[in-house]
Design goal:
Layout: H1 3-9, H2 35-48, H3 50-61, H4 66-72, H5 83-117, H6 128-137, H7 139-167, H8 170-190, H9 194-201, H10 206-215, H11 219-251, H12 256-293
Length: about 300
């Protein structure tokens, strides 16, 4: 730029880069939810940032190997373990040891997805250390959010069961159980964006109200998105992961290392199944923010500050 041009343009505001081809302006955004479009958006983030999700799943799967060596010296994780001990190992050992890194990994996956969906090329920064740090910081609020959903589902079933079985009418029990299932699905659909609200916006107890506000009026689309995600997990990711696990087990000689690798592969599949669900929920969270608040490129929050 010449000095003459510089002098002529002095004082004019600097124009922002034009991302309109990739990130539409708020006033041009389609405000319909679109179950298939939202699912495709989440799947796109999953595909373009696959290595990031793979790294998060791998790190979070490592603690799940501990019971293998603790119970079977790396040869058979259940050798010489009684039935009571087996269930104890699964629910206490594997469950507790794996749940903590799983929840931290879910938060990391949420922040990765959020950044990807609000990036012009749908690719997020791969600074996974910062994402795991965010997972550690938001672990307690996320745990409380998880318990809120769990207790809500359990409370609905308990309340309906206690009421219906007191009547002793089989007809009423059947339809009451059906009503309870519908109520649970409605509850889960409504608060399906709770964890993204906690991870991205750092809401504490206010995240429950936040999720309720965002989901208001979009119960059926959120339910449809959950069902679509469940079907994809059940008939695509699950069978594909099982095939990978069987292939790995058949190609390797029988040894302690084989057991560890097979166990690790199974945990990776589990992580990916759960992560994919949370990726789609984050896509729904972002979509609802766009619809209700007009989220634009300049409104992207720095979730790692």
């Amino acid at each position: 730029m010449s000095e003459q041009q510089f002098g002529r343009d002095a004082g004019k505001p600097i124009e922002r880069p034009d991302y309109s081809r990739n990130t539409p302006r708020v006033d041009e955004v389609d405000t319909s939810f679109g179950v298939l479009n939202t699912f495709a958006s989440g799947f796109g983030a999953f595909r373009r940032n696959f290595l990031g999700y793979l790294a998060i799943a791998a790190v979070c799967s490592i603690p799940g190997l501990l019971p293998v060596f603790a119970l079977g010296n790396g040869t058979n994780p259940f050798s010489g373990v009684s039935l009571v001990g087996l269930f104890g190992a699964i629910f206490l050992g594997v469950g507790v040891i794996s749940f903590i890194p799983l929840l931290i990994g879910m938060i990391a996956a949420i922040t990765l997805t959020h950044d990807a969906l609000l990036s012009p090329d749908r690719r997020a920064d791969m600074n996974l250390l910062s994402r795991f740090k965010t997972g550690l910081v938001r672990f307690i609020p996320a745990l409380l959010g998880f318990l809120f959903i769990l207790l809500g589902v359990g409370g609905i079933f308990l309340l309906v069961s206690a009421t219906l079985f007191a009547t002793g009418d089989g007809f009423a029990v059947f339809f009451g159980a059906l009503a309870a299932l519908i109520a649970v699905l409605a509850f889960v659909s409504t608060f399906s964006v709770l964890l993204p609200a906690i991870a991205v916006e750092r809401n504490g107890f206010g995240a429950v109200k936040r999720a309720w506000t965002l989901a208001g009026g979009y119960l059926l689309p959120l339910f449809g998105l959950l069902m679509l995600t469940f079907l994809f997990d059940s008939f695509v990711i699950g069978p594909l992961g099982s095939l990978i696990g069987v292939t790995v087990n058949s190609l390797l000689p029988s040894s302690g290392a084989t057991v560890a690798i097979t166990w690790f592969t199974q945990f990776m599949v589990l992580m990916f199944t759960i992560f994919f669900g949370i990726i789609i929920q984050t896509a729904a969270f972002v979509r609802l923010k766009v619809i209700k608040e007009g989220l634009a490129e300049e409104d992207v929050a720095d979730v790692f500050r």
